[in-house]
Structures are given as C-alpha cells and as structure tokens.
Amino acid sequence: MNSSLHYLAYPAVVSNHRQTTGFRRKLDLDHYLSHQKRLQIVKPTVDTKPPAAHTHLILKLRKLQCEQERIDKIEYENRQLCEKIASMYCGPAKVDCWNSYFSRSLNREMRNRELMRITAENQAILRRLGNCKSHYDRRVSEMDWQNSRRYIRNTTRYLLSQDE
Questions:
Q1: Which residues lie below 8 Å from residue 87, measured CB to CB, with a gap of 6+?
Q2: Rounded to whole angstroms, how far apart are CA atoms 140 and 146?
Q3: Structural domain count, the chain
Q4: Which of 61, 139, 156, 160 lies at a C-alpha separation of 20 to 30 Å from 131?
C-alpha cells in the first residue's frame, strides 16, 4: 500500500472532516480489502464444468435385467434340448415323427355328394352330345350357294371371275 506521505486521494482543500486524507485513506483501504475479498470468492458466470453424469442414463439396469432374463431363457431351452438329445442317444432307437392327427372336415360328406352330382350331370351331357346327329345338310347348302351366285351374276354389270 502507499505510505502516508505519498497518499493523497483527494485535493488538499478540506471542507469536511470526511474528506481528510487519513480518514479517506481508511475508507479507501476498507473498500480495497472488501473488493479483494470479493474477488477471492467470486465464481465465473460461464459454467465450464462438465455436465453431471447421471448413473441411470449410463447404467441402464432395466435393460441389463431384460438381457439377463433373455440369456437365462436361452440357456434353459438349450439345457432342455441337450437333455432330449442325450436321452435319444442313451435310449432305444425309435421313430417319433409320426403324424397322429387327421384333418377332419365337418362338411366332407356334403362336398362328396355335390361332386358326385356334378360328375353325373357332366357324363349325361357328354352322352347327349355324343348321341345327337348333325342337322347340317351339305347338298342343301351347296344348292343354296349356287343360287346365291346365280343371283349375283344376274344383278351385277361386270362379270365375275371364274374363281368366285
């Protein structure tokens, strides 16, 4: 700090006892010390600390529990399969892959009757088609064609070619 001889914070003209150099120096020193104390305990306005690490975000216990349960279930099923395979190797040879179930339909008889009826109707139609004679008379058709050609020749001005 400055010595008393060199310290002169305000001009030498004194009109008030509070403006005296010693008293003013004391006030300034108190102000300076309180300012220094405040500087020691001041905190920065910008937070430069890393964010708080929450354990429930990093260590997900529920997820670990579900994963452990899934692994336990897989191990249990693997153990059961191993026991079955071991019993197959140790026991007598036998076939156990027979399908012992039959498909049962509630309307099988009705569908069979309907199929038989349709088959009988188709056979009757086939028989009728095979037995029927054609009503087409070739001679009558030929004579009709010749008459139509004669009518065309009589009504046209130009002669038709021999092909027609």
A1: none
A2: 10
A3: 1
A4: 139
